[in-house]
Write a structure and sequence with these properties.
Layout: E1 4-7, E2 10-13, E3 18-24, E4 34-39, E5 46-51, E6 57-59, E7 67-72, E8 77-82, E9 91-98, E10 103-105, E11 109-114
Parallel strand pairs: 2-11
Antiparallel strand pairs: 1-3, 3-8, 4-5, 4-9, 5-6, 7-8, 9-10, 9-11
Length: 115
């Protein structure tokens, strides 16, 4: 019912910035919540940020003040602006959404932060 396509990952030096994008298919984008998660090798997948259909946001303590999640319902797109990046931010970042019946994940995009 929903397909998620991510882009924007890459290699950046510590202190730099990246913006991730996730484009969702379908006609129900405006009523579903969206989130960004990340997973480093050998670690559990963890929540980074969420945004509701109404625009309310929530962030992991590790990224507060540095990352910003936003959505553009007209473009069926959710963004993650990442500033002041640290080596510990290195991970595969995943876009996620939920309907009343199913959970959907994007393919993931690699973010690597060098020191």
């Amino acid at each position: 019912q929903v397909q998620l396509v991510e882009s924007g990952g890459g290699l950046v030096q510590a202190g730099g910035s990246l913006r991730l994008s996730c484009v969702a298919s379908g006609s129900i984008f405006r009523i579903i919540p969206m989130g960004w998660y990340r997973q480093a090798p050998g670690k559990q997948r963890e929540l980074v940020a969420t945004i509701t259909s109404g625009g309310s946001t929530n962030y992991a303590d590790s990224v507060k003040g540095r990352f910003t999640i936003s959505r553009d319902n007209a473009k069926n797109t959710v963004y993650l602006q990442m500033n002041s990046l640290k080596p510990e931010d290195t991970a595969v970042y995943y876009c996620k959404t939920e309907t009343a019946y199913l959970t959907y994940w994007g393919q993931g995009t690699q973010v690597t932060v060098s020191s």
